[in-house]
TrEMBL record:
Localisation per UniProt entry: Membrane
Name of the protein this chain belongs to: NfeD family protein
Keyword Phosphoprotein listed: no
Topological type in the membrane: Multi-pass membrane protein
Organism field: Streptomyces siamensis
Chief localization: membrane
Transmembrane segments: 7-26, 32-65
Length: 144
């Protein structure tokens, strides 16, 4: 064991920290692995054990302190591009089959025919009238 250089052990530690990163998807393990790679570089350049451990600690803590809050902010942001039914909310549609308070009807929305019902049960919409989609419940568009 004494025949292997310290930088090899740091690279083994980096690989060892990469395994839980992949298995658990916790980015902190990746940041610790980068710290181990930095310590391997210091060892390869001839730095002592104390300097290696210091570099490992400083790089790892700095990455966790800087990158983690940025990643948390990005994770909390809503996507700017709405997709699926979220993209259909607020769009305009054309009534294809009359919609009144008691019965639903059909609308043409984004090139497709959808079942629809009025948001206000007392409201009715005639064929050809343009309406706004306010919500999607299952396969039914809620219009006004």
């Amino acid at each position: 064991m004494n025949d292997i250089n310290a930088w090899v052990w740091w690279l083994v530690a980096a690989a060892g920290l990469g395994i839980p990163l992949v298995v658990t998807a916790m980015p902190e393990f990746g940041m610790l692995a980068v710290g181990a790679v930095a310590a391997a570089a210091v060892s390869g350049l001839g730095g002592g054990v104390v300097l290696q451990v210091l570099v490992f600690s400083v790089v790892s803590v700095a990455l966790i302190a800087v990158v983690r809050p940025i990643a948390a902010r990005h994770r909390a942001q809503q996507p700017q591009l709405a997709t699926g039914v979220e993209a259909l909310k607020g769009k305009q549609a054309v009534v294809m089959v009359r919609i009144d308070g008691s019965d639903g009807g059909r609308i043409k929305l984004a090139g497709e025919i959808w079942s629809a019902r009025a948001l206000d049960a007392g409201q009715s919409y005639e064929v050809g009238q343009e309406v706004d989609v306010v919500d999607i419940e299952g396969a039914t568009a809620i219009i006004m």
